[in-house]
Amino acid sequence: MKTVIRIDGMRCASCVISVDDTLEALDGVHSSKTSYARSLVKIDHDPDRVNAQRLQDAISRAGYQPRAS
Amino acid sequence: MAKGKQRGSTPRQRAEARERRERREREATARARSAREAAERRALAVAEDRARRDREAAERERQVAEREARERRQRVIAAGSLLALAGLLAVGVLAGPELPGPDAAGASLVAVLAIGLTAGGLSCLAVQGGLLTVAVTGDRAQPGAEPRALAHNAAPIGWFLAAKLAAYTALGGALGALGQLAQPSVELRVAIQIATALLMIATALHFLRVHPIFRYAILTPPRALTRRISATARGGGAFAPATLGALTVFLPCGVTQAMQLIAINSGDPLTGAAILATFVLGTSPLFFSLGYFATTLTEATHARFLRFAAIAILAVALVSLDGALRLGGSPVTFAKAKSALFAAPTPVAAKQTVDGTQEAVITAGAGGYSPRRVQLRAGKPARLIFTGDGSAGCSLALIFADRQYILSADAPTPIALPAMRAGQRIDYTCAMGMYGGSIEVIA
Lengths: 69, 443
Known about the structure:
The complex is a heterodimer.
Chain A: E1 2-8, H1 14-24, E2 29-35, E3 40-45, H2 52-61, E4 65-68
Chain B: H1 2-7, H2 11-95, H3 102-107, H4 109-137, H5 154-181, H6 186-207, H7 223-235, H8 239-247, H9 254-266, H10 269-292, H11 299-327, H12 334-341, E1 348-349, E2 351-352, E3 358-365, E4 368-370, E5 373-377, E6 382-388, E7 397-400, E8 403-406, E9 413-417, E10 425-430, E11 436-442
Parallel strand pairs in B: 1-5, 3-6, 5-11
Antiparallel strand pairs in B: 2-3, 3-4, 6-9, 7-8, 7-10, 10-11
Helix pairs in contact in B: 2-4, 2-11, 4-8, 4-9, 4-10, 4-11, 5-8, 5-9, 5-10, 6-9, 6-11, 7-8, 9-10
């Protein structure tokens, strides 16, 4: 399943690394692709193992502000 | 009767009475001891509570002092950067009709250093600062990781900057060698310089949060590379920050790109390496400061930094854009506007030689070309002798009548001109359009 989450608070290109690392460390996330320019992340994940709320929580813990889209 | 009874008590009764009295005395002593111990415990608890409160108050005071010291350091850094930028601009205004810019940097390594210290440092920090933060924080960037003392930030920053310096020095050498093989055409130079200036302007507008579309101005490395970066950062030790520092060559900011163009223009591997090495050295103090305090900078401080960086980047971008317009022969440039508003330099007439040729000597130095205006007589051929003043710089990369000359810093370079008509004029510039001069033909 693919989920798109908008993210506020990314300050530079390296935030992309931080977001992707955080999400891909979650059990059930296959891949994460963050776009700094578009302020969003596309996540390929298994919804039975990790739901959208957990993805947003992980982004929040990494210091960014997720907005479901 | 009672007295008689007491007097008549048996020894056993008297022993029992004595035993009761002694028991009462023991019980009284035990109560007194218990009360004394309770009082001591209460006093101890009160003392401990007071000591705890004192410790908490001291801790609060220490935190307040630490925060104030941190804010003072941040103010000093900001003020230092502001002063450095103001100094650079002041030097530019006082130095002559041309503002210092990316091209001036090529003309003097001191100017390269100055640009690195100010606009270059700010611009690069804005683009590469995240990599530096990753290098400093490493796996402590993860939630729940233990913080560590600021002093421990110094080592990874040192490795980061050393590797960055080595990578850019090598890149400068390669670009200089590339320029030795083939120099880009004037049109390509103008196109690259305009693109670089526009990228810088877009970056500055992004930092000023003018519109979300300007977020596209920030280059991001491909995912394969970012995976490598994060894996490296988790590795710890010296290797991780050093690798991250070397990887900054993949995230050049606008000012860095301008410096890379100058390295190509130099047409010499050693000069190209020196240009980028000096530029990176110039950016290092700001990088070190930000890296050192990376874990303590507040959101508000970061926002102020971005606004300040945006202004510095805009200044460099406008200088670069002006140079591109000048190089492209635009009728509207900052230098022409300045000449129109203020008195133009006095023209110098070419000397007549015995063979009937006119001759003028023009010095290409770190501050541009001198004299900037040369007058020729109509109807006679002329010979311009361009000479360097010993300083290596990009005023030695001369664009004259759409043709490029790499002037020697030590030996004269003659350029022959045919006889021309009165009123004709040739404008020439350095390779990036920052310095220039004119040849005017009079009757």
